[in-house]
Amino acid sequence: MSQHTPTGGQGNAGTAPRKAQRSESGIAGGGTVFAAVLLSVSGVMAVLQGIAAIAEDDVYARLGSYVFEFNLTAWGWIHVVLGAVVVLTAVGLFMGSNAARAAGICLVSLSLIANFLWLPYQPWWAITIMAIDVFIVWALCASWTHTAD
N or C: which end of the chain has fewer CB within 10 A? Predict the structure, then answer.
């Protein structure tokens, strides 16, 4: 005897994609909100980090010689500007803008590079921010729906 599967109704096949879509958007949506929160916090921290560098505080001490050696004031302005733009991008993400999502990916990539170059001044902090930046890029890319704003 052979088994015969009825084809006349939606059955489980019609509900499975909706369940997968619902749970996927819930996880991805939470990841986007968390990425936006992390973006805003890291942006504010970058601004504060930049202000400390511009004020030429004794907080930062360079460890040896480094190929990408900049003046501490120049690093301060880089962090202030990048941090301010990152905070504005986080606001756009909270509003649900896909343009802010694309800008966030680009800005976090720049933040990742800036923190790599910042390693001699604050090694543990730079590594921590780089790890957070990698998560932010993943969260923003994983939940992108490619719909018009």
Answer: N
Q: How far apart are the first and last CA of the chain?
A: 55
Look at residues 45, 44, 63, 140 and name the one whose alpha carbon lies nearest to residue 99.
140
Output Rg (C-alpha) for the chain, integer angstroms.
22
CB 32, CB 139: distance < 8 Å: yes
Name which of 149, 36, 134 is nearest 91 in CA terms. 36
43-73: b (≥16 Cβ within 10 Å) or e: bebbbebbebbbeeeeebeeeeeeeeeeebe
pLDDT at position 40 is 92
Kindly tell me if the per-residue pLDDT of 99 is higher than 70: yes
The neighbour count for residue 123, using CB atoms within 10 Å, is 11
User: Which residue shows structure tokens 């509900």?
Assistant: 15
Cα distances (Å, whole numbers) of residue 130 to 2, 9, 107? 58, 51, 12
- pLDDT, tens digit, 9 for 90 and up, residues 100-128: 888 999 999 999 998 888 888 888 888 99
